């Protein structure tokens, strides 16, 4: 059965180490929306193709979009995607994400997580990041940052931005959940 409210696809985005998976898990608990985190998709596709290769890029984006299509077709109330903008994501992906969401009757919600550089460096080295093969090397992060790896694709302005230095994950999730209940429709073509 279709929910009475418009389904919401929440794109929780930010740099590596800002707390996307932690906040996303708490948000899933708060909303009941399933969570599809970035590394679940990356790890699956990377088991078949080298990271950043053309087949990797194509399959990763297809999986993200097909997940959205399936959630909307099944009438779920929403989905949370964690996303780290980086140059192996095509410029066509975000417009396609909006199109798939809108065509499926949903609304795309852009939520950005940020933290200070010091907090990010501390979090990158946390052993919990090893479980999903996340980046854990601060020097590597700075090399990638200097090379402009995180500058593409250019993200549209977030409708909600939270500083994860100042908020515990559960409080950040509560704020996002409250916003989702009251927010106007912004990123929808319908």
Could you explain the architecture of this structure?
This protein is of the alpha/beta class. The chain has a single domain (8-182), classed as Rossmann fold. It is 44% helix and 14% strand. The protein is built from 7 helices and 5 strands. It has helices at residues 20-31, 38-46, 54-73, 93-103, 117-124, 138-146, 169-182, and strands at residues 8-13, 35-36, 78-83, 107-114, 160-163. It has a 5-stranded parallel sheet with strand order 2-3-1-4-5, with helices on both faces. It starts with 7 loop residues before the first strand and ends in an 8-residue tail after the last helix. 31% of the residues are buried. The model has no long low-confidence stretch (mean pLDDT 90).
Summarize the structure.
The protein is α/β, with parallel strands linked by helices and 190 residues long. It is built from 7 helices and 5 strands, in the order βαβααβαβααβα. The mean pLDDT is 90.
Percentage beta strand: 5-15%
**Largest sheet strand order:** 2-3-1-4-5
- Indicate the CATH architecture: 3-Layer(aba) Sandwich
> What's the number of domains?
1
Rg on CA atoms, Å: 16 Å
Query: Helix and strand string, N-terminal first?
Result: EHEHHEHEHHEH
* Contiguous runs where pLDDT drops below 50 for at least 5 residues: none
Number of strands: 5
